[in-house]
Amino acid sequence: MATARQLDLINSLRALDSETPWVEFKENNSDVETIGRNISAIANSSRLSDRNNGFIIWGIRDNDHEIVGTTFQPGNSVKGNQPLQLWLSQMLDPPPHLDFQVFDHERGRIVLLEISAATQYPTRFNREAYIRIGSATTQLSRHPDTERILWSRLQPYAWESGIAMQYVTSSEVLELIDYPSYFELVQHPLPDNRDGIFERLLADRLIARDVGNNWNILNLGALLFGKRLDRFERLARKVVRIIEYEANDRTKTHRRQESTRGYASGFSWLIDAVNGMLPRNEHIGRAFREVQPVYPEIAVRELVANALIHQDMTITGAGPIIEIFPDRIEITNPGAPLNEPSRLIDLPPRSRNEAMAALMRRMNICEEQGSGLDKVIASVELFQLPPPEFRVEANNMKVIMLSPRQFAHMTAAERLRATYQHAVLRFLTNEKLTNASLRARFGIEDQNAAQVSRILRDATSANLIRLADPASPRAGYIPSWA
Q1: How do strand 108-116 and strand 82-83 relate by DSSP bridges?
Q2: Backbone φ and ψ of 454, nearest 5°
Q3: What is the CATH number of domain 408-479?
Q4: Is the full-model pTM beyond 0.85?
Q5: Are 170 and 179 in contact (CB under 8 A)?
Q6: CATH number of 4-157
Q7: pLDDT of residue 136 exceeding 80
Q8: Which fold has domain 239-405?
Q9: How far apart are CA 75 and CA 455, in angstroms?
Q10: Which residues make Cβ contacts (< 8 Å) with residue 87, sequence separation at least 6?
Q11: Which of 34, 246, 279, 444 sits in a 20 to 30 Å window from 50, CA-based?
Q12: Boundaries of CATH 1.10.10 in the chain?
């Protein structure tokens, strides 16, 4: 028998005045080539209509939307020697998510195909993109104006607007989403009624309406404010893992924790958990012993926030991981950065998840756009730590922050990287790198200025920095790209 959502969905689609570009009614037409073209057309038309999904329904008459039943059996349909759904996935590019649902209605048997809307580029069948014009399926290339509009709708589409959980009641939304935390973080009074709560969640695209007075929890809402991410099947692997090792390799784990709460509602707990595992130094002051962090807290906070915000959400089975070793901390997130690693400090950040980034900035979880990593570098220099390393490994972004080490024990590569980062930081404040400023960064005495001169020559030879004014070497240095 039909589920409650299937009944509500069928009733809402039958109530439409006419066949829309994102809905196709059929009786028994099971020609697989026709089905493939219609899927392409409906996936594209759904995105054009700002819908997350489109539908093909067998068993409902086209002209009056009466339920007449169908003999179509998608599970028994084949093309060549391949099952229908496998063949369709090979012929469609990119293949949308296809959900064939077969159920009995009191008036007849129905086959419902739910099709996810196009995302990256127009969905093609057999290398041709299709679109619905009225109730007709036609080649997209024949309608250049429509194609331009479709591309404009595809460009801002993001993973955040996808559905994490479908067809949930109002009570279930409030049970699954930590809405008090949302209102606290956006600094908005908690409404005294459900309508006010749902109005705000809807406005920030944390939820969306589904059929039958029910709701869809969107990926953005679940990921930022889910009470438990493991309750959302597609997000369970996006929990943040924190692992502390006993030695400088991964052979023996000392402690392990997971942050299963949403990234926004659980951010304070996450940072406290990380800082609680990080080593600290004991400093004896004039009267009292003081315990001071080895790593600047603002750097840890910003790097963790960046790992959450800039990860590639489309990479399944992987989430952010924070690994703590006695001599370093490594923060890794899925997906290579959209900017060159060497330019992450100075270039405005580019994120795949703009809605999440904007909302987390509104909630003061991360720095304003373009002012985060420079503060990381500034705090690292203040603590006179070795320079952090930004590394791309196997489609992952990894940031390595090293524990305190005197200049004499830094490697040649670390000295050059620190020099480059110092030059970038000075450039961003309209200053120049000088021998004196680099001595201060490394904690080198003035009488050892010759050591710094050698580093400047090496960094220049490596094309990391250059003289700001070749005619006046005392004018200082700037990054080579400046």
Answers
A1: unpaired
A2: -65, -40
A3: 1.10.10
A4: no
A5: no
A6: 3.30.950
A7: yes
A8: Heat Shock Protein 90 (3.30.565)
A9: 69
A10: 32, 78, 79, 80
A11: 34
A12: 408-479
